[in-house]
Amino acid sequence: MFNVTQSDNYAYVEDFFIGIYECQTAYNITINNFYCLASIGKNGFNSIAKCEAQLNTDITNKVPICVAENTFVKCMGDVYTTYCGADVGAYMCNIENIALTHVLPQCVPTLINCPAYST
User: Fold this and answer.
1) Could you read off the pLDDT of 43-98 as tens digits, one per residue?
2) What ranges in the chain are assigned the alpha helix state H?
């Protein structure tokens, strides 16, 4: 109907639901950690790249997709915890799980449990 690619469709769905989480459910985490979240792409670039490389390796090696994605979610949560603290690590875990819920719904039963927020 709107002539968008499947990839764009997935990106929109992810962005829509993640935006709701960031701006409503986890608004205080987003605002209280804004500058760290804004800088982690630069400060944690190498660590994030390692998580992405591991995901690509797992997919290439035909690791079941839900297992590979859980490894990625854990890795990203650890990176964000290292750079921004435990609440931001939990925040990132939840964001990744929200994306997976809508893009790979077959993984929902096996998604990792994200840590609880301290606040």
Assistant:
1) 999 999 999 999 999 999 999 999 999 999 999 999 999 999 999 999 999 999 99
2) 6-20, 27-32, 34-43, 45-60, 65-84, 86-103
CA 59, distance to chain mean position in Å, is: 17
3-state DSSP call for residue 110?
A: helix
**Phi, psi values for residue 65, rounded to 5°:** -60, -40
Place of tokens 């994030």: 48
Q: Where are the domains of the chain?
A: 6-110
Cα four-point dihedral sign 80, 85, 89, 95: negative
Residue 34 DSSP symbol: H
Q: What distance in Å separates the CA atoms of residue 89 and residue 84, rounded to the nearest whole number?
A: 7
Nearest Cα to Cα of residue 115 among 74, 79, 84: 74
